[in-house]
Amino acid sequence: MKVFSGWRRLVFGLPLIFLLTHLFSVMELNKNSKLGEPHKQPNKKFDHLVLGPAAGQGLSNRLQCQGTKALNRTHSSNSRSGADGSITFVTVFAIYNSSLNVGDEKSSSTVFGDASYNKVGRSMALLNVFINFIQVTMPQSKVIILTDPVSDLPVRRNRVSLYPIQGEYSRDKLMLQRIRSYITFLESKLQELSWKPRNITHYIFTDSDIAVVDDLEQIFHDHPNFHLALTFRNNKAQPLNSGFIAVRGTPDAILRAKLFLQEVLKVYSSKYRNASRMLGDQLALAWVVKSKPHFDVSRFAKGLAFSEDIDGSSILFLPCALYNWTPPEGAGQFHGMPLDVKVVHFKGSRKRLMLESWNFYSSSLDISDMLCLILGSGRTKYDF
Fold it and tell me: InterPro entries, from UniProt (predicted)?
């Protein structure tokens, strides 16, 4: 009986031994196969441009490029219709030098050319390029920077001024604060006009990561009746981009723009507060516009400017393809760049490209060639 009991334990133990042996074999096989495979690098952001074929080749009314050389010319204005200074650009920007210690500066340093930037240096470099493009394209225009009164913002530029507005400028609440700052600014302009009438100044509210590459005064000449203008794209969830908002400088238009933004802020605070860090403003814009029963959302797919009355405000909708064009990233911009593009928006991981573009323009002084650099550089992700 003892012999039989031992033999039974041996028989029942064989499956377990076989299973363990099989598992070890599979693990070893997987290990060896991984060693034989080429090492896969994790996706990383490049510190240089990677040029590829420019999208839109052969398409009419698209920029045609051979490398960084434009084969046709963009419809850039040479008349400088904005030379009278009737346009003022307004952006929200705040930095805090005291919030960065030495360790943070060292760990976040970025090399660009012969310079090394910390977080504050990178932000300031981009802000200065934003101003540079405006002063080249529309040299008589002014730039106003809405900022936190305690922000240490070292800006000393001609025709550039700071406008402190109390608020919450933390990264998590910056988009909400941006709308509040726009409203406060418009209220102040209404007050100024009430006691001191003056020549009309139109306002264009933008993100600070854009490049103005053509004169924008034609918006107000070609569309003389709108109160404010928004940019749209063919995107069902987020058809409106808040990075570009134009406001006519008449008292009525400024009032209408303020009331419209107040409604957007109300929707933002009540419906999309969880998205306060980003996207909430665009979702709120879309809700305010699309919630009107008479609004035809199918027009967003057509890519043509149109006007619509929304609660007494005449709103001009301008295509992002011209007034808020975003450089390609990853798979590329399949339809290329329109010849009459006015504004390039370096969103997200395209910040370094903005600086690269300015440096290229500084050496070539050719907007069209610079646009070829932008158009052909979207084959990988890079940041600054």
Answer: Nucleotide-diphossugar_trans
